[in-house]
Amino acid sequence: MTVGLTAWLKVPQRQAQMVGLALLAAPVKLPAAWVYWREGLLAPWPVLPGVNLGLVAGTDVGARLAHRVSDETLRRLMLAFIAAMALSMASEALQ
Q1: Is the dihedral of CA 76, 60, 33, 37 positive or negative?
Q2: Is the C or the N end of the chain the one with fewer CB within 10 Å?
Q3: SS in 3 state form for 17-56?
Q4: In terms of C-beta distances under 8 Å and separation of at least 24 residues, what long-range contacts does 86-93 make, across chains too?
């Protein structure tokens, strides 16, 4: 979402990140989680609070760090992260 907003709609990256975070809040995710739950694919209950705490801490720390780097560095870090995720997914798909 952030890449699409910045690349195609020319929204400044920090604003695009805020929009992405705001739109990906829990109410947007609940319908998808419901589908997984109905299919019996829910993670064990003890895992869920840990994951949620990690998401809250990670987004807080990430937002604070994003404001400490230049726009150019932020763009490069985002590109590196997306490239690493793409390579990881491609590697998993080939196994």
Answers
A1: positive
A2: C
A3: HHHHHHHCCHHHHHHHHHHHHHCCCCCCCCHHHHHHHHHH
A4: none
CA–CA distance, 52 with 49 (Å, rounded to integer): 5
Rounded distance between C-alpha atoms, residue 74 and residue 81, angstroms: 11
Q: How many of the other CB atoms lie within 10 Å of CB of 74?
A: 17
pTM over 0.90: no
State which amino acid sits at residue 40. Answer: G
The CA distance from 80 to 71, in Å, is: 14
Burial of 80 (0-12, 13-18, 19+ CB in 10 A): exposed
Tokens of 7: 């690349």
Tokens describing residue 80: 């590196």
